[in-house]
């Protein structure tokens, strides 16, 4: 039984480890960018200037009295890096992507679902985005 094709070579373990380390470092850099952008803000919505669902999500969050920061990734110099980081978090499509209390919540479907379950207001209260 042949495990590799005649043209395929097997990488040494040290090379595989090096590749994994590099991937982890790249992932961490992307996450650091998101952490910086969401720090000190109770609610952040990542969007694109052409995203109509962002308006819906923002209106819903604002209806509770919160004032979310909206960041248009297509207008940022590092927007592609931010969008890749959002995709790596599992946000598909990449926008809108909502963070409440520096925690990734998800896209429009997740935010609307939390609202239907009466959990969105609790997250906003805990993040001090709104007050009773």
TrEMBL record:
Residues 43-105 form the Glutaredoxin domain. It is found in: Cytoplasm. The keyword Cytoplasm applies. Keywords: Cytoplasm, Redox-active center. Pfam families: Glutaredoxin (PF00462). It comes from the Eukaryota. The keyword Cytoplasm applies. Gene3D superfamilies: Glutaredoxin. One of its GO terms (cellular component) is cytoplasm. Belongs to the glutaredoxin family. CC-type subfamily. PANTHER family: GLUTAREDOXIN. This is Glutaredoxin domain-containing protein. The lineage of its organism: Eukaryota, Viridiplantae, Streptophyta, Embryophyta, Tracheophyta.
């Amino acid at each position: 039984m042949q495990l590799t094709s005649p043209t395929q070579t097997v990488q040494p373990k040290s090379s595989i480890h090096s590749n994994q380390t590099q991937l982890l470092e790249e992932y961490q850099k992307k996450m650091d960018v998101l952490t910086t952008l969401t720090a000190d803000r109770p609610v952040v919505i990542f969007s694109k200037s052409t995203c109509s669902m962002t308006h819906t999500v923002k209106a819903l969050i604002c209806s509770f009295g919160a004032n979310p920061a909206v960041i248009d990734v297509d207008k940022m110099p590092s927007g592609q890096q931010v969008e890749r980081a959002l995709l790596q978090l599992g946000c598909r499509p990449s926008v809108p992507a909502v963070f409440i209390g520096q925690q990734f919540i998800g896209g429009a479907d997740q935010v609307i679902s939390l609202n239907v379950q009466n959990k969105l207001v609790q997250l906003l209260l805990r993040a001090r985005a709104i007050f009773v």
